[in-house]
Amino acid sequence: MKSRRRLYKIAVEVILLRNYEKYVQARDAAWKLLIDCSVTALPVDPASICKHYNYRLISYRRGRDAIAALGLDGLMPRTDGFCIYSGNKYYIFFDDSMSRQRQRFTIAHELGHIQLGHIGDNQHTRINREPSAHDDPIEIQANWFAARILAPACVLHSLHALTPPEISHVCEISIAAATFRAQCMELLEQQHVYLQNPLEQQVARQFESYVRRILVSGRE
Ligand SMILES: [Zn+2]
User: Fold this and answer.
1) What is the mean pLDDT of the chain?
2) pTM of the prediction?
């Protein structure tokens, strides 16, 4: 078990090193979004973020006819969500038959594609599912972004929420997504590299009173 974890850590480090620029771009974009939308508490609500940017958020159930009219109904069985830019507006469609936690991550992943400039005019995204080692760099980047807006590292650190069940509970994400995040948190905790960037310092300030409230209620 120990050597498997060590191998995983090496794999994560190699991925980060190879895609360092992409990683920094996703990380900074996530911090900027949390600042831009004045997010101050967990769980982060991806629907209000969509509202803030005026992105239309539509479930598969509600958007079935619109999706068929766009000729994209073939995507629905293959992906948990997708996004399209059309008529100067972004539309995010998501599978509302999935668990609430999965839906939240799906929407955050599509927000990542938009904020990271992955979608041009009349283009749409194709893949949105639980993270896997075989994802291409754009999917990995959207997942990095999603994890960083739903489970910001500096907030998890201050809350001492570091295990998959704790992260899943406090951030309302699936255990699978929380396990990925917990593995990243383990690396960050070892290196103790928090609050070195002014963007992260601002995010931490925004969450200060929420963190205090949670820590006090935990002690009672
Ligand atoms: Zn995607």
Assistant:
1) 90
2) 0.89
